[in-house]
Amino acid sequence: MANTTVTAPPSTNRRLSGRLGVGSIVFMVVAAAAPLTVVGGSVPIGISIGNGAGYPAMYAVGSVVLFFFAVGFVAMTRYVPNAGAFYTYIGAGLGRLHGLGGSFLALLTYQTIQAAVYGYLGAALGGVVADDLGGPDLPWWVWAGAAIVVVGLLGYRHIDLSSKVLGVLLIAEIGIVLVVDAGVVLSGGGPEGFSTASVTPSGIAAGAPGIGLMFALAGFIGFECTAVFRDESRDPDRTIPRATYASLAIIGVFYTVSAWSVVSAWGDGGSVTEAAADPEGMVVQTARDYVGAVAGDLVQVLLLTSLFACVLSFHNVVNRYVFSMANTGVLPRTLGRSHGRHHSPHVASLLQTGASVVLIAVFAACGLDPVLQVYTWMSGVATLGFILLMLLTCVAVLVFFARNHVDTRLWNTKVAPVVGVLGLAFAAYLTATNFGLLVGGWTVGAVFLVLTVASYLVGPLVGVLNPAADPLAVARFEAELDHPVEVPQQVRPTPVPEDHA
Asked: Is residue 15 assigned to a domain?
C-alpha cells in the first residue's frame, strides 16, 4: 500500500513507465491470488459441499468465463484514466450512481473475505498450537482475535510485509504445492488411481456444481490487478492483455491440476469423505502421505503465512478504499484522517478492525464452525460480490464502447463482452440460487443475499444525497496517493487534517 498522507509535498517523481514486462506483472497477480490459501482452503470445501470429485473442472470453467470478461475489460483500460478498481469502470460505463454502488459492494466483498480468512486462520492456528506444539487448546475465535489485533496494529502503523518476503513465500507456496502434485502423479494416484470425475459430464454435474463454481471463482479474486500496472508497463497496449491472459491461464491450470491431484490422492469417494471430515488438514495430510512429514510441516507453516499475508493485504486494500472514499465525500470525512506520525489511514484501520472483531464475536456467540460455516459462508458472500462486480463491469464495457466509438474491434467490444455477461450472469444465478444450500437454509441465505444487494443500493442513495460524490474522483484521489504531481489541480480534494495522537 502506498504512503497515504494526503498532504505530501510536490515531488519530481513521475509515474513509472517502461519498466514492467509481462513476467513481472504476472508474478504480482499470482501473488495476489494467494495460491496456497486457495489450494489448502477452498479446494477441500469445494470438494466437500460442491460437486465432489468433479470440482477440479470448475477451475477450468471459471477460467473460460473470466477470459471473455477479460477481453472487454482489458480493451477498456486504455480509455479510463487512473483505472484499477472495478467501480471505476462501472462509473465510466454506467454512470456515477452505479459506480458508487460498485464501490460499496466492493467494500462488503473485501470485508467478508477478511472475515472468512480470519475464521480459517483461527482454526488452523489453533490446531497447530494445540496438536503440533503441545500448547493450550483454546477456542478458534481466540486465535482469530489475536490475528485481528496483529493485523489491526500493522494497519494502524502503516506496516506491510516486505515485497521480497512475500516473493519468497509465494515461490515457496507454489513450489511445495507442485512438489505435492508431482508426488501424487509419480505415485500413480491413490487407491483408485487417477481421478477421471472432472472430465466426465456425470462427475462435473454431481452434487452442487453451482457451489463448486462459486468457490472456484473465488480463487481468481485479484487477477484484475493487471490493469493497475498499466502506467508502469512496457508497451501497455500489448503487455497488459498478455499479462492478463497469462495470469488467467497460469492460475487456472495451477488450481485445476492441484485440485485434481488432491482428489486423485484420496480417490473420488475418499476425497469427499476426507474433505468433509478434516477440510483444514486435508492438503497437509496429502503432503505427508505422498512426499513426507517435512513436506506436510512446510505446507502447514506456509498455509498459515499465506492466510496471514492474504488478510493483511485485504485489510490494507479496504483501508485505502475507505480513506479515499472519505476524502472525496463518499464516506464521512472523519474516516479520511491520516496519522501524523505513521502517515497511515488509522481511522479507517480502526473502523475495519472493529468491524472484524464484531463479526468474529457474533460468529463465536452463535457457535459457528470456523471452517464449515464462517469461512464457507463469508467466502460465499464475497464471491457473489466479486461475480456481481465483474458482471456490472462487463455491462459497463458494452455501454462504454457503444457510446464512445473509440474502439471498433467487434470481438473486443461486443462479442467477447456479451459472452462474458452471459457467463457471469449464469454464475451469479447459480451462486444466488444455491445460497440456501450453502448456509444450510434459506432464512440465513436470504439475509446474506439481501445484505449483498443492499450494499450496492447504498451507493446510489449516497449519490442522490450528495451530488458531489463521484467514484471517478475516488480513483483520481487514489492516483494522487501514488503519484501526487500527476493529478490535475482542479480535481484535487481538500485534504482532511492529520491526527498526531
From this structure: no
Cα separation of 402 and 320, whole Å? 32
3-class SS shares of the chain: helix, strand, coil, % to 5: 75, 0, 20
- Pairing type for strands 498-499 and 338-339 reads parallel
Bridge partners (DSSP) of residue 338 are: 498
Q: Residue 190: what are its φ and ψ, rounded to 5°?
A: -90, -150
Residues 6+ apart with CB under 8 A from 87: 99, 100, 101, 102, 103, 105, 106, 389, 471, 474
Kindly tell me the sign of the dihedral angle through the C-alpha atoms of 375, 376, 379, 381.
negative
The verdict on residue 1 lying in a domain is: no
| Residue whose C-alpha cell is 506444539 | 133
Residue 370 maps to a domain: yes
Count of domains observed in the chain? 1
**Spatial separation of the C-alpha atoms in residues 136 and 291, rounded to whole Å:** 29
Dihedral sign for Cα atoms in the order 163, 475, 459, 68: negative
Question: H or E segment at 150?
Answer: helix 140-156
The boundaries of the domain holding residue 138 are: 22-499
CA distance 393 to 414: 13
Do 287 and 296 touch, CB atoms closer than 8 A? yes
Measure Cα distances from 340 to 8, 59, 293, 325, 352 in Å.
Answer: 11, 45, 48, 19, 19
Query: Predicted confidence band at 18 (pLDDT cuts at 50, 70, 90)?
Result: low
Other beta carbons within 10 Å of 339: 20
Written as nine digits, the cell of 152 is: 489491526
Task: Express each pLDDT in 241-285 by its tens digit.
Answer: 999 999 999 999 999 999 999 999 999 999 999 999 999 899 999
pLDDT given at position 260: 98
Spatial distance between the Cα atoms of 435 and 446, rounded to a whole number of angstroms: 8
Flag whether 6 is in a domain: no
| 420-450 pLDDT per residue, tens | 999 999 999 999 999 988 888 889 999 999 9
| 121, 147 contact by CB (below 8 A) | yes
